[in-house]
Amino acid sequence: MDTHVSDSTTATETGTPFTDPAGHAACVVTLGTGAPAGGHRGELGGKGTRLAELSAAGLPVPPAFCLTTALFDAYLRETGIAAEAPGADPRTMRERILGTRMPAPIADAVLDAYGGMGRPRVAVRSSGLREDSAAQSFAGQHDTVLDVCGDEDVLDAVLRCWASLWSDRATVYRDADAPDSLAVVVQEMIHTDVSGVMFTVDPVNPRPHRLVVEACQGLGEGLVSGQVSSDFFVVDDEKLEVVEERVRYKVTKCAPLEPGRIGMTKVDAASRSVPCLTHDQLRELGALAVRIRDLYGSEQDIEWGVRDGVFHLFQTRPITTRPVAPAAPSGALSPYVAPQPEPVLNGTLWSRMDIGEIFVGLMSPLGLSFARYYQRNVHTDCAGALGVRDTGEADLHMGFYQGHVYLNISYSSYLLAQCLPTRDQRHFTSRFVSEEVDLASYENPFGTFPGGMEDLRSAVHWLQHTAREMTQMKSRSQQMVDARLYEFDRARGLDLTRMSRRELHGELHRDLAWFHDMHVGYMPYYINAFAFYGLLTELCARWLGSDGTGLQNRVKTDMSSLRTVESAKEVWAVAQAAKNDPAVLRIIKDEPLEDIARLLREDPAGQRFWDRHMEPFLRANGTRGHQEMEITHPRWIDDPSYIFQMIRRYVADGFSIDDILRRSSAWSDDSREVLDRLPMPKRQILDTVISLYALCSELRETTRMSMITSIWLVRNVVYEVGRRLVADGVLHSLDEVAHLDFEDVRRYLAGDEDAVRVFDRARVDAARRLHEHNKRLPEPPLTFVGVHDITASVRPAADGARLEGLAASPGRIVGRARIVEDLVWQADEFEAGEILVTRYTDASWTPLFAIAGGVVTDIGSMLSHSSIVAREFHVPSVVNTKDATQRIHTGDLIVVDGDAGTVEVVENADAEAGQSADAEAGGSADTDPRSTPVADRAPAGAGGD
Predict the structure, then answer these.
(1) pTM to 2 decimals?
(2) What percent of the chain shows pLDDT beyond 90?
(3) Which of 201-215, 468-482, 572-586, 812-826 is predicted with the least confidence, judged by mean pLDDT?
(4) Which are the contacts of 400, defined by CB distance < 8 A and separation ≥ 6?
(5) Which residue among 238, 693, 804, 884 is least enclosed by CB atoms within 10 Å?
(6) For residue 774, is it within any domain?
(7) Among residues 416, 440, 455, which one ends one of the domains?
(8) Are residues 623 and 684 in the same domain?
(9) For residue 479, is it within any domain?
(10) Using alpha carbons only, what angle is made at residue 261 by residues 723 and 640, rounded to the nearest 5 degrees?
(11) Is 15 helix (H, G, I), strand (E, B) or coil?
(12) Regarding predicted confidence, which is higher, 553 or 248?
């Protein structure tokens, strides 16, 4: 097509509103029936104009009509609202429109056009005058109503869109400008199989000739809101060849749940690990993108969907930000937050192994900024709680790399050399090093801690501190437990929504002080457990030789008393209570997850169940959650969906408390016999070390609940601020809280500065883009020395059948694999005896361990959560495989060898499906044992399954 539509002619050039003397029908424009919108640009709004232009160019746009700004103006005049508009409060204007029926002549014009489409299900979308222009996107400022059907519902949706011209977010976005008029697009609703966005230039990478595609299962609203996982593709815009592809495991999608109700549901199991689009479809989509870019002569952001193999275009807008290389705090290759001398920069040992189990994984901008607050205000005092006299510079303790938090092992070991047990730095460095790093040639760039009198003072200080710690550790633990219950009950009784900004600031200040104290109090238990475990490992190797191999992992340490394991038993108890009450069980089993808590409270039996069982459980465990320092993640008390999923699972499997107790009983091995062969002095020393390890482990887990509760308290205040920012239009949705900076939240509450200035839209968007950039990158290593170029990392080939990792929990088992990406959505899918395969776990995953046949993770170490709890439940486990979630598929038959540290795929899911089909055709099929000890099965390849 030769017609060129310039982005410089935007919908802001409205001129005098167009009104046809023939009546209101002329103010309704059917898109795609004539020439490009041209003369009516100011009447169709940005979205309507773009869709009209795409339709006129012969591009695949679903049938639609547009209610022009002239129709909206007529509505305002005929209802008398226009006279009230000048100087009116925006909320008053919204309420006035929503409370006024549409005059009959205007309603008839709308319904005539709707009838002309055949009255299908439609999406009703606002189309602002400045929306999708080259200067401003106005994206998300006005309302969209999806999956509407029926005359009355369509009219109500139109009124909602018109009222959104005075929404808080639109008012804030246009700042002091007066509201323009508003058009509305009514477009046939396409229930897409796959949806996504396509950028004709990479928005976060300046490399040329890259068409970037993000695709998800279901409707595109799930992708826009960040609620679903998406595949990522790059298409060369000249050859239309796919040059980059990253396929994620996709658990959920946005889709119609029932007529008129859009929500989250599960992706079919067969579609979870396969690409959303084929290469042929990507070439077709790339060709459409090039046509659209040529049409406008500028780079475009395009929304699209596929239904039954046919592409549909829903929107295009100019890209209003230029791609630049995302900024990192101190360069893209180093975790340091400030410039460092070259020897330090290139020689520092960094690790993210087991750093509190709460920093694991990619973190949001808010999570990273909260971790930075912890670094500056808490971490050095934690070091002091270990008996370190000189706690050093806060900025050197931790670093940040591509959205991940790293501990500076070099600096930490330098400072910990002040303590007698870690005088030899190797005791600390070896504890936090994965196999990626060879310590043979490593030299600490910070050197050794000063000797002489400084050394003596530090040693004396450590001895005095440690003596006090040993006498106070149990009493302090009890004080932390009591304080946790008090703070939890107090928080449950507060109504943050009724607090003023100044009161909310006081609450955050109080919560952060308690956050500090709980982390400082927890740290000695955490580090001492590691220290005694390290000493146990060293003594076993020295005194027992080959007989002591793995002894430290097999020794019973009374872990069954730890809160992480107790939670599995307590979930079972709640499940048993639900099972014994048919009315309660029906609600939990049959109702949507998001409705269960409300429906239980509305039902008499459900309310009794809630008071007697759920409330005590949540009081004990409710502040648990996934990746706890990431404060964007809800806790169980905020969203108990995971608990309801586990209740469903435990009830369905008939899992008994005896099963849990049996799995957490003593190892059936010769550990005691090996110890008894030692001379008494050595045996007594080992028994003492084992007892101290058990004590510190128990105190660590007991006080850990206080530590994570303190994070939950801070989260409550941050999200109350977020809700206010959404209500005031500063944020588009509560999801955007993830892109805020924690220091901005503190600054906003501490002063009187306007929220629009504190939470600058440009910085929020920049944080989002950087986070999206980090999500695309390969997983960084657990440990590395100096700098690391993550862009040089490549994913291993996906055709391997054998993986090697770290032998974390002994035993050997064969079973069907289950990839778990989203704990809440997939907990009810997990069947007893299956092999859990995931990237990593934390305390919130413990109830699954009670029914798992084995555990395999991408990352982890001997003292990561997955290793400790797997050993406690006697579940064979291999961790730190790097890429198990990419090379194993749900349904694969795999052998997990927790002694050798290997995972072998002996039969893939596709082959099993073929065998089952053959067996069914032949009239017989073997029963498929979900998980069987290898010793009880035929060898692989010898008949087997």
Answers:
(1) 0.70
(2) 44
(3) 201-215
(4) 328, 329, 335, 337, 368, 371, 372, 406
(5) 238
(6) no
(7) 455
(8) yes
(9) no
(10) 50
(11) coil
(12) 248
What DSSP line would sit under 854-921, residue for residue? EEEESS--TTSHHHHHHHHTT--EEE--SSHHHH--TT-EEEEETTTTEEEEEE-HHHHHHHHHHHHH
Confidence check: pLDDT of 554 > 80 = no
State which amino acid sits at residue 150: G
Contact in structure between 838 and 819 (CB atoms under 8 Å)? yes
Query: 147 and 48, same structural domain?
Result: yes
Cα 670 to Cα 549: distance, rounded to the nearest angstrom: 12
The amino acid that residue 856 corresponds to is V
Range of the domain at 86: 24-188
Do residues 626 and 691 share a domain?
yes
Indicate whether 326 pLDDT > 60.
no
Write 668-675 long-range contacts (CB < 8 A, 24+).
669/554, 671/551, 671/554, 671/555, 671/556, 674/544, 674/547, 674/548, 674/551, 675/551
State mean pLDDT over 725-750.
94
Task: Name residue, tokens 């979205």.
Answer: 47
Same domain assignment for residues 264 and 133: no
Given this model, what pLDDT does residue 42 score?
A: 63
Say how many domains are in the chain. 5
First-to-last C-alpha distance (Å) of the chain: 61
The pLDDT value given to residue 177: 46
pLDDT value at residue 320:
57
User: pLDDT tens across 656-675, in order?
Assistant: 766 666 665 544 455 667 77
The two tokens of residue 22 are 């023939």
Does 413 map to a domain?
A: yes
Would you state the pLDDT for residue 379? 95
On whether the CB atoms of residues 839 and 859 are closer than 8 A, the answer is yes
SS3 state at 89: coil
Is residue 389 included in any domain, yes or no? yes
Same domain, 628 and 541: yes
User: Residues near 502 by Cβ (< 8 Å), separated by ≥ 6?
Assistant: 749
Task: Indicate if 820 and 865 belong to the same structural domain.
Answer: yes
The tally of CA atoms less than 13 A away on the side-chain side of residue 944 is: 17
The predicted model gives 610-638 an average pLDDT of 93
Judge if 364 and 266 occupy the same domain. no
